[in-house]
Specification:
Keywords: NAD, Oxidoreductase. It comes from Streptomyces fuscus. The chain contains 14 helices and 9 strands. By secondary structure, it is an alpha/beta fold. The longest helix has 29 residues, at 170-198. It is globular, with a radius of gyration of 20 Å.
């Protein structure tokens, strides 16, 4: 282990957090992790990291603290309070929140951390589980240029497209736009799949040729097999996309932006969740279209 690299504390070792923390270990970083599930901590130690028994233990000696948890309430739970990051991280530490949360939560966190002498970046990601494993995530960052420059080598071990989008909260705003585009794109693909199948067309051939033209997209490339095989094992759960559609519709309302198609897709995601499909991959929007079309589910 190179002693010149910053010591990293990683809080939250889920579908995204586990492979991301492992990529930092592979890049030579000393990573101490904390999460609620013991098997995830065991996975981290097998990969060469150190498991901590609490947030306080994980962050106390860290130069950089990275958080990757599901939503705003979890970020607030791990950041604030007597057992939280702000109470135990050392002054001068850099806190990088890579969760997808409301822009306002990021702004508030940066303000609260500043009082403790802790610097903050919001750095949500896009690319899903596959992007996390392959270290090709898109990382959208909000915060100060100097802090971004310091964090850049860490981001480069995790992703490929890394952009400072503006002040605190900007990363989350761009991530919300990302989730809007992805959901609408998946919905359009799902509608096309049902239309093609009901028309008796060879679905694999159709999706291959569509993906080679203007209708092609990263979404179609990544989700084609999910559609073809009806494999909805979660890379990114409907539950989380439901949360994100709430963030984008709320934030758009606050700034006076109309999202007519986004609002409809937000409702379709909500209905899928209400039908018990919240734990499935977001490509399961196909199931909602099938139900509406009287096709197989």
């Amino acid at each position: 282990m190179s002693s010149t690299l910053p010591k990293i504390a990683w809080i939250g070792l889920g579908i995204m957090g586990s492979p991301m923390s492992e990529n930092l270990i592979k890049a030579g970083y000393d990573v101490t992790g904390f999460t609620l599930e013991q098997e995830k901590l065991d996975r981290l130690t097998r990969a060469g990291g150190t498991a901590a028994s609490s947030i306080a233990e994980a962050v106390k000696d860290a130069d950089v603290v990275i958080t990757m948890v599901p939503a705003s309430p979890q970020v607030e739970a791990i950041a604030y309070g007597p057992d939280g990051i702000l109470a135990h991280a050392r002054p001068g530490a850099l806190l990088i929140d890579m969760s997808s949360i409301t822009p306002q939560t990021s702004v508030d966190l940066a303000k609260a951390a500043k009082d403790k002498g802790i610097r903050v970046l919001d750095a949500p990601v896009s690319g899903g589980e596959a992007g996390a494993i392959e270290a090709v995530l898109s990382i959208m960052v909000g915060g100060e240029q100097a802090d971004f420059d310091e964090a850049l080598p860490i981001f480069e071990a995790l992703g490929k497209t890394i952009v400072l989008c503006g002040p605190h909260g900007s990363g989350q705003t761009v991530k919300a736009a990302n989730q809007l585009i992805v959901a609408v794109n998946i919905q359009a693909c799902a509608e096309a799949v049902v239309f093609l199948e009901k028309s008796g067309v060879d679905l694999k051939a159709a999706l291959d040729v569509l993906n080679g033209g203007l209708a092609g997209s990263t979404v179609l490339t990544r989700k084609k097999d999910n559609f073809l095989q009806r494999d909805f094992k979660p890379g990114f759960r409907i539950d989380l996309h439901h949360k994100d559609m709430g963030i984008v519709t709320d934030a758009a309302r606050n700034v006076g932006a109309a999202l007519p198609v986004g609002a409809v897709v937000a409702q379709l995601v909500a209905s899928l969740r209400a039908q018990g499909d919240g734990g499935l991959d977001h490509s399961a929007l196909l199931r909602a279209v099938e139900r509406l079309s009287g096709a197989r589910v």
